[in-house]
Amino acid sequence: MKKLLTVAISVVVIAVIAVFGQQANVTTKEYTRQETMVPQPQTSKIKVIASFYPLYEFTKNIARDKADVSVFTPVGVEPHDWEPSTQDLVALENSDVFVYNGMESYVGKIINQYPSVLFVEASQGINLGANSDPHIWLDPVLAKDQVMMIKDSLIKVDPNNAQYYEDNANAYSEQLDELDNTIRAELTNCKKDTIVPFHDAFSYFGSRYGIKIHALSGIIPESEPTAADLKNLIDFVKQNQVKVIFAEELVDPKLAQALADEAGVQIMTLSPLEGLSKDEMSSGKSYLNKMHDNLNNIKVALECT
Ligand SMILES: [Zn+2]
Predict the structure, then answer these.
(1) Ligand 1 mean position, distance from CA 275 (Å)
(2) Is the dihedral of CA 197, 201, 203, 206 positive or negative?
(3) Domain range list for the chain
């Protein structure tokens, strides 16, 4: 009898636990569901403007869905001598961070006008010696430093997502390492050692991978070569049996084409990655894609196997 009672009590206890347990579960679930239905306090994303394409691409890869990232220089426009209009500057008023490279002459004029915006020079702290060449992003190893600099600035204004930015920056850095390894491997067996890019954007890339650079124009693509420069260039191309003269996607290829015709060589594209065309932007081209395209074209020019 006593045993039977114990069993009965046990059954009741178990039943009670089961019912209450279930209720507890139900309550928890409903509570959770209610929680998510209550409008959250507006945790608005930080707003970041990157001055031109590669910085935009790096920033996007770090920020992903935690920040609204936009590019300041309009798509399809070469950024070297671009200046923002008064209308363009309106976007800065609501921004948290402005990422720039250091070659944007307008930054000096606006940096003090927007005290609530964190201006971040992505090239800061990169040891370039006496070199004032701004084309740091074209060397994947130096680009990693820019990525880390951008990451630090996002963490500064949005510390709640620090780990997220940290992880994304590390993942993107690994992709840059892979790119670096690929370039090294693909350029090991080449017959030639000199390329003729359109403007002088590839000196960091060249010194990283042991390629000599003989550019058609100066540090900015708009610098007009003189007639003597052009004659020297054609002589150089002929003497060194250069097979390819490179044009750029954002600059009229007329000059490069005329020189290639004159020298009797091929014309190809070598992108300084200073901006994508509208078509490239909408087709989802990336910095990494474009660097691989560049590598393939350089391999043709250097006759690599
Ligand atoms: Zn340039």
Answers:
(1) 10
(2) negative
(3) 46-184, 187-301
Structure token digits, residue 209: 């991978």
Give the contacts of 72 (CB within 8 A, at least 6 positions apart).
49, 50, 51, 52, 84, 88, 91, 98
CA of 219 to the centre of ligand 1 (A): 6
Closest by alpha carbon to 272, among 292, 250, 289, 243? 250
Asked: is 46-184 a CATH 3.40.50.300 domain? The reply is no
CATH code linked to domain 187-301: 3.40.50.1980
Mean pLDDT by 10 residues, the chain (305 residues): 47 43 41 47 84 98 97 93 95 96 94 96 84 92 98 98 98 98 97 95 96 89 84 93 94 91 95 92 94 98 97
Residue 242 alpha carbon to ligand 1 centre in Å: 22
Asked if domains 46-184 and 187-301 share a fold, the reply is yes
Cα 32 to averaged position of ligand 1 atoms, centre (Å): 54
